[in-house]
Here is the input.
Amino acid sequence: MSMQKSDMVIVLLLVTICVAWITLRIRSWLEPPKGKLTIPFSDEIPQDEAVELLEGAGFDVIAAKTRIPIVIELGEIEEPLQSRLYIDYFVKKQDRYYLVKLARERKPMEWTGSSLRDALLPYQLLYPEAAGILYVDMYQQKIKKISFQIEVQL
Here is the structure.
């Protein structure tokens, strides 16, 4: 049986659509998702007391202070507001990544559920692949591991 010209056009059209669809799927797999931050890696890690404490506890420091800019738009204000979040370090231990926040004397942590949620949950939501957050208190030489488990009830 021989293909007629119209059959050949239909087959070529279907092949073109399949190739275009496959190309788009591969492209979307290769691109990092928009709005999702990836854990940074840096060769330049300053050697300070916090790094020594973390390394002494078996963590590999993979990145130092990271600034995350935030733009806030309010409907009635024409110019957007600017803010930022800082993460002091990113560390790795046994193939698990952690964000590190250092204790600040002027802003002590309240160890209640709502306070921890307000202070640290935004960081965990920015980096969902992280196993948790390490809160490092250099004054007491302690590292506290904090992880969030969110239960969604419908």
In short: The longest helix spans residues 5-30. DSSP finds three helices and seven strands in the chain.
